[in-house]
Specification:
Layout: E1 4-6, E2 11-13, H1 17-20, H2 34-43, E3 46-49, E4 54-57, H3 60-68, E5 72-73, H4 83-86, H5 92-110, E6 116-117, H6 118-123, H7 126-135, H8 142-147, H9 152-155, H10 162-177, H11 180-186, H12 191-204, E7 210-215, E8 219-221, E9 224-226, E10 231-235, H13 236-239, H14 270-289, E11 294-295, E12 303-304, E13 310-311, E14 315-317
Parallel strand pairs: 4-10
Antiparallel strand pairs: 1-2, 3-4, 5-7, 6-14, 7-10, 8-9, 11-14, 12-13
């Protein structure tokens, strides 16, 4: 594929790529990125984006490969040093126990309210509270943990994933609560079904929409070849809705027969593990403390964001 060199960044640029392909950073993309993603997948599977200063990959096959391919570096992947070195002493059952306990404490605190915002009153606190409890930080000091160093005692370089887990949990609860039939199905569901619903939420509404990598060699992809030494923006949000991989990709369906989600690597990461525990025990704690929990009348979750994405609020009626 013939390329030009962008003098602003010193990287190869496909002819016409600047003016034809839409950008994930275009105005309005924060509220509805899916049309842009669709155009990129169908017409520009490999393009250079001057706003991102990176080549852009949007199809599932390309993004899934790039997230685990060693030719794409400079990104956090479970199992990468120093990630692997930091996680050798993690007690999985202890993490499960503190996650469950924290979720039930938070759920009971809002159970008697006439209205509550699950983002502000629950999702914002559960990831921080779980890590705080695991490392012995008192409940009253949880928010110090979010910006402080205590998380490193548990998660090493994954401590910064607390905000990402908040967003993932908000999207998950929004996806469940918007469908009364799904609420009924998951209210007393086994862990396996809750895990499928969690994976489906990560596929359809991942908290991280764009992951950035850098190539150490030329890599053939759909639409051409990514040059060596290039910055690459992986559109995780687009890949999860690729119709070449998933039937009816815009539909949230934990029961789908073509499940799957993108993985960031083969190694162990407590941030990933904790996120799954938080999703499971969030549902169990909320439904136990508030059996008639539902979204407030007229409210529907509205995800927003460019790099990370989730609903800003989840207004509910705890008593139904």
């Amino acid at each position: 594929m013939r390329t030009l060199v962008d003098p602003a960044v010193g990287e190869a640029v496909p002819p016409g790529g600047r003016t034809v392909a839409p950008s994930p950073l275009d105005p309005g993309a924060s509220w509805d990125p899916h049309g842009i993603h669709r155009t990129l997948r169908e017409e520009f599977p490999l393009t250079y984006d001057p706003l991102l200063r990176a080549w852009v990959l949007s199809r599932y096959a390309d993004v899934a490969a790039a997230l685990t391919d060693a030719r794409f570096t400079h990104g956090h992947r479970p199992g990468d040093p120093p990630c692997a070195r930091a996680h050798v002493d993690v007690d999985v059952e202890a993490l499960r126990a503190v996650t469950e306990r924290t979720a039930y404490v938070l759920a009971r605190r809002i159970a008697e309210r006439p209205r509550a915002d699950l983002v502000a009153d629950f999702c914002h606190w559960l990831p921080a509270g779980t890590v705080a409890a695991a490392v012995g930080v008192p409940y009253r000091d949880m928010m110090r943990l979010v910006r402080g160093r205590a998380a490193g005692a548990l998660a090493g370089e994954c401590g910064g994933q607390i905000a990402v887990r908040e967003k993932a949990l908000a999207s998950f609860l929004g996806n469940v609560l918007v469908d009364p039939d799904l609420v009924a199905a998951l209210r007393d569901a086994p862990a396996g079904l809750v895990a499928r619903a969690w994976a489906e939420s990560l596929r359809r509404d991942p908290p991280v929409q764009i992951a950035v990598r850098r190539t150490v060699a030329e890599v053939p992809v759909s639409g051409g070849v990514v040059p060596a030494g290039a910055s690459v923006a992986l559109l995780v949000g687009s890949a999860g809705r690729d119709p070449e991989r998933f039937r009816e990709p815009d539909r949230f369906d934990p029961f789908r027969d073509d499940p799957g989600q993108l993985t960031y690597g083969p190694g162990f990461c407590p941030a990933v593990l904790l996120a799954g525990f938080e999703a499971e025990y969030a549902l169990r704690a909320l439904f136990t403390a508030m059996p008639r929990l539902r979204l407030a009348d007229g409210f529907r979750p509205a995800p927003t964001g460019l790099i990370t994405r989730a609903p800003r609020s989840l207004v509910v009626r705890p008593g139904g």
